[in-house]
Structures are given as C-alpha cells and as structure tokens.
C-alpha cells in the first residue's frame, strides 16, 4: 500500500513537473492580456458599429441601399476578427489542457499531505521512543556475545569435565594396568621360584635317594658324601640367588623405563594443563574484547544513525527552504501580475462605460453619474430600462408577427399566381411548338382563318385559349387547309405576346424572390427578436434573483402570458429534452403500467408533492410502527402471563 502511494506521489510529481505551473501561469497571463486587448478592440469596433447602425437607420432608402454593402463588409470583418479571437482562445485553452490533462487531483494530494502533517506528532513520539530503544539496545549490544560466551563456557566446562573424567579413568586404568603388570611379574617370578624349588626338591630327593642307596652300600664314604651334598646345596642356593638377582635387575630396568615413561607423560600433562590455562585466559580476554567491540560497534551504529538523521533533517530543511523560496517567488510573480492587471484600471473603467452604453442603453451623462452609484442602484436602473425595452420589443414583436402572417398569406397568393402563370407559359410554349408544325401545312392567312372557323364550328368540346386565338389544331384533329398559306403575319404577334408574357413572368419571379427574401429577413428578425427576448428574460431572471426586493416592480398583470411563453422557451433552451422526457414518461405511464402500479405511482406523487404530505406520511409510518410494537409487546406479555397457568 505504501509503495502504491509512493508511486502515485512520484507520478503526480512528474506530471506537475512536466506541466511547469509557473510557466503555464505566465503563459495564461500573457494569453489573457492578449484576449483582453482583443476584447477591448472588439468593444471599440462594436461601439463603432453601433454608431454606424444608428447613422444607417437615420438615412433614407437610397442612402441605406448605398451603405448596405459597406455595413455588411464591416460586419464580415468583425465576424472574421471574432473568429480569429475564438481560434486564439481555443488554441491557448488546448495548450493549457494538454499540459494539465493527465494531472491528478491536487485535492487528494493535499489531503494526504495534511494527514501526514497531522500524524507528524505521533511520528515524533515514535521517533523518540525508537531513539530510547536504540540507546537501550546499544547498552546491551554485547548480549549476544555474552550469550555466546556463556554457551562456550558451558561447552568448555562440559569438555573439561569430560576430559577430567577421561583423565581420571586413564589414571585409574594405568594404575590397575601397572598393578596387573606388577602382579603378573611377581607371579612369573614366583612361578620361576616355584619351578626352581621344585627342581631343587627333585634334586634333593634324587640326592636323598642316592644317599640312602649309598648308605646301604657302604658306610666309610659317608663323610665324603656329606661334603659333596653340602657343596651341591651351596651351589643350588647360589644359582637361586643368581636367578633372584637377575630377576631383580630386570625388574629394576622395567621400573626405570616405566618411570621414564611416566615422567614424560607427567611433563606432557603439565604442559597441556598450562596450555589450557593460557588458552582459557586468552579466551576470557578475547571475550572481554569482543564484548567491548560490540558495545563500540553499537555506539558507532547509533552515532551513524544519528548522523544520518541529522543529514536527512538538514536535507529536508534545505528542500523546505527551497520550496518556500520558490513559493515566495511565485507569490511575488503573482503579485506582480496582479499589479500589472490593476494597471489597466482606467481602461476597464472606460470599457465598463462602453458596456453600459451598449448593453443597457446608458447615455454619457448616465455613465458619468453611474460611477457614484452602488451596484444595486445600477442594477435597479438597468432592470427598469430592460423592462421598458422588453415592453417595446414585445410590441415590435407582435407587429412583426402580424406583418409576417400578412406577408405569408400574400406570398402564398403570389405563389399560386406564379404556378398558374407557369402552367399558362407551358401551354403557350406547347402551342408555339405546334405553330411551327402548322406553318408547314398552311400557305396563307386566309386558309388558316377559314380552317380555324371551321374547327370552331365543328368542335363541340372545350377550346383552349391559345387555340381560340391562334387556331391551333388539337391532338387527333385533321386540318383540311391548304399548304400554300404562310405564318409570316401571325409570328410577330405571337412573338410579342410571348415576350410580354415572359417579361411579366420574370417580373413576377423577381417579386416572388423579393418577397421570399423579405420573408427570410423577417424570419431572421423574428428569431433574433426571440433570442433577444430570451436574453432579456434571462437578465430579468438574473436581476430578480440578485435583488429580490426589486422583483416586485415588474409588470406582472399585463404580460404574464408572454412571460410564461418566454419562460417555457427559456427552460426548453436549458433542457431541450425535458418535454420529450415528460411525454415519454406519460406514454409509459398510460400504456405500459398496470393499474396497481398507476395507483401506487399516483399515491407516491401525491405524498411526495410537498413537505406537509411528506411529514404526515412520515408521522403515519412512525405511528403505525409504534402501534405494531405496542400490540406485539402486549401480546407477548399476555401470552407470558397465561403460560404458567
């Protein structure tokens, strides 16, 4: 959502940057000045034309005919100037619209900006709270380090305990292994001694058995035998002692080697403990440095954030200062343009006087006296003059309408005469064509006249005028005349008659054209008068709405029907489809709605007709609902009281 808002703001900023409102205002200001100049020129030309028209009306008919083309040319040039002015205004309007066509609604942007400014207090509180939280966070920035340190110490304590247990186990195992080796050695020595004793016992038994045998054999050699036995005993003891000495020496060598091994292990163990203590001290120092580093990093981050905020505030202040400076410059330019607008006060005053002369028919003295009057008094005076002008225009309109009706009847009569003359002209041309055919058959005038008299005496039907005059044979008739007669004597008469008829026809056509032109002019004059009447009615409506006190001064009794007619035409000009819509609604209501719908629509129309009926219907609905609610509560209470019984 915030990203969409930022995109909308960026798009709006881009559109308004491309629109370049100060330059657009300057362009519009210059265009307005140019339009005002053109308008002043138009007013001057209009005043000049009004004077020319007054002079033209004062001329006689010949002078009007002579000056008519000049006035038409001046009006045409004024129309061309108005067209150029309209094109210039439309061009400037199109340029301005093209620049601000895609511009968003500034109302929404300003409302969002106001919301942001209203929320600025809460944002400041949140920023202060955020700053306090950042300070607290900076104070406890080594929390993670301490937590890691505690976890490391726990791991190290577990590892040290495990190592101690393992070392104790190794020590106990080594002691038991040492005891096992000692007992095994002692067992081996004892087994060796036992074996030696067994061997000695065997030797002694063998010697005793030999001694017994020798004693049985001879007694003189006992002493020698005792001496030999003692020698053997001493040699056996010597061997035993030698073996014990050898085993003791071997055991001493083993103990020395074992002592050396234990000394090496002890040195290693003492060196590892020292290293572990040194490592522990270094770890403690590293942890302290890390916690201090974390605090310093948090302090550095806090200082950086504060520095960033200060820079941001500085940039915002610079932007705000630049915006204020640009707004001040725009205000200065606006004030300068306003002063430039007010510089043509005298010209506007003269234009206002000219407008009063042209629009309200004020004289020079009235314009000078009107400078001291208020707007209400001027409007009252203009209202009275407009009312008098309206009465005059209505009288002229009635005269023109009566004249138009008389001219319309006269034009219709002339058109009938023209149609009759056209028919006669067609018959005459047909008769002339037949005369050319007859000229080849007749030789002289006498035979032609005799033939004509015979045809007249022989015909029993209707004779055409041309045939009765010239003796022209009708279709299907046989002319028994001589071929030697000529038409030289009758042709000049026919030609003169034809020329007279043609001249009369052309004169009648000119009269008809003139009457049609007069009728068109009268129609345009009537339309112009209708438009003027509508404009006058619109001005009267405006003046009556502007000052209700002066609205009672209008003559209501004499011209209520005419005002109703102009009011209806004015409303139709405002809403050209209103009458058609009303007729369509009536047709739909009369043909396509059911009787029930018609009754409902009639009731709704009657109820909603005015405020009184609407309020009565509203009170009726409220009363009906209140009655229904009271009856419902009464029924509920009565049913609740009857249920326990």
UniProtKB/TrEMBL annotation:
Stretches the record annotates as Disordered: 210-233
InterPro entries: CASP_C, Cux_N
Residue stretches making up the CASP C-terminal domain: 407-637
An annotated GO cellular component: Golgi membrane
Gene Ontology process terms (BP): intra-Golgi vesicle-mediated transport
Coiled-coil blocks: 116-156, 383-431
Compartmental location: Golgi apparatus membrane
Domain of life assignment: Eukaryota
Predominant localisation class: Golgi
Family of the protein in this entry: Belongs to the CASP family.
UniProt protein name: Protein CASP
Native source organism of the sequence: Eremothecium sinecaudum
